[in-house]
Design brief:
InterPro entries: DUF1759
Pfam families: DUF1759 (PF03564)
Helix content: over 70%
Number of strands: 0
Distance between the termini: 80 Å
Structural class: mainly alpha
Shape: globular
Radius of gyration: 29 Å
Length: 335
């Protein structure tokens, strides 16, 4: 058992180092000097390393204590972000090469205008101006587009404008879509939304102002857990000590549960000396699975309207007959 644990931990450590090193290599490479097949090899190596890491993580998480699992989840999230950056840079470069075989200079692209620029299809993030979404958008756009040396500033500007809507789009609306304006546009957005203190307050507000659940609806329970985890992850990225907030979070979420579910959690948590948020998450997930199963069973035996109507009539007749019998019996007993 100990030998297996040691092997899995070593695998996690080695693959994490490999993925981090791969990010350094990718961000310092000059993409123009690489052939497409070389970029594909880098991408395949990164995917293989991440798959091995994820498999080892899943296997090890089943063998260790819950306290260690929480730390492992944080590490997995960090490695996942690193892998996403690597894949974003490499895949976007490959996508771009499929649509533009020969690079054009910046001035030529500017003269063509917005209508003539063909942008390759990419799964890019979007941003509407909500503060809580800024850092996620910033990290993903930066890793895929902003630091990609193969994409010139004119295309970066078009990509940036295509990702923005609402208030965020208005911030750079006055800038024309030329390469000369890209860095200014990126700077305007960063100056407007890169406010760590304000973003922190927004996440806390969303975390503590979640609605009370009136009944055990699957969608409501899922939303409660997902929203809580989403903002806890964001707060952790902002260097908040969320790993020590379990007691506060459990109290907060318990107060949002319907009374019956809150009682069930109190019974469940009494088995733990100091229950963790992870344990409460598992409890909620089990509850969701049960509700999903019950919903599936009820929907797997549909009845036609005619059958329901007949059953309703039969039930009404049976109840009427039973009531008449009870009245008759009561009459004779009283005589």
């Amino acid at each position: 058992m100990e030998e297996k644990l040691t092997t899995l931990r070593k695998t996690l450590s080695n693959k994490e180092k490999l993925i981090r090193k791969k990010l350094h290599i990718v961000t310092t490479l000059t993409m123009e000097g690489l052939a497409s097949h070389e970029i594909k090899v880098h991408l395949e190596l990164a995917e293989s390393a991440f798959t091995t890491y994820a498999n080892a993580h899943d296997e090890l998480s089943l063998l260790v204590e819950d306290s260690e699992v929480e730390l492992m989840i944080d590490a997995l999230e960090e490695v996942s972000r690193t892998f996403i950056k690597i894949k974003g840079i490499l895949q976007s470069t490959l996508d771009l090469r499929q649509t533009t075989h020969e690079p054009q200079n910046e001035n030529a692209l500017s003269e063509q205008g917005q209508q003539s620029i063909r942008l390759p299809p990419m799964n890019l993030p979007t941003f509407t101006g909500k503060l809580e979404d800024w850092y996620a958008f910033h990290d993903q756009f930066s890793s895929v587009i902003h630091v990609n040396k193969y994409i010139d500033n004119t295309r970066k500007m078009h990509y940036l404008k295509s990702c923005l809507s609402g208030e965020a789009a208005n911030v750079i609306a006055s800038l024309s879509s030329t390469g000369n304006n890209y860095l200014e546009a990126w700077s305007l957005l960063t100056n407007r939304y890169d406010n760590e203190r304000l973003v922190l307050q927004v996440h806390l507000q969303h975390l503590f102002n979640q609605p009370h659940i009136q009944s055990e609806a699957v969608s409501s329970l899922k939303a409660l857990v997902d929203t809580t985890n989403k903002h806890l992850r964001a707060l952790k990225v902002l260097k908040q000590p969320t790993e020590s907030w379990d007691t506060i979070i459990i109290y907060l979420i318990s107060s949002r549960l319907p009374s019956e579910l809150r009682k069930a959690w109190e019974i469940e948590s009494s088995a733990y000396e100091s229950p963790s948020w992870l344990q409460m998450c598992k409890f909620m997930e089990k509850r969701v699975h049960v509700l999903d199963l019950l919903q599936l069973q009820s929907s797997s035996t549909p009845r036609s309207k005619l059958t329901n109507k007949c059953n309703s009539r039969a039930t009404t007749h049976a109840v009427t007959a039973a009531v008449q019998y009870l009245f008759t019996a009561s009459y004779y007993l009283s005589v």
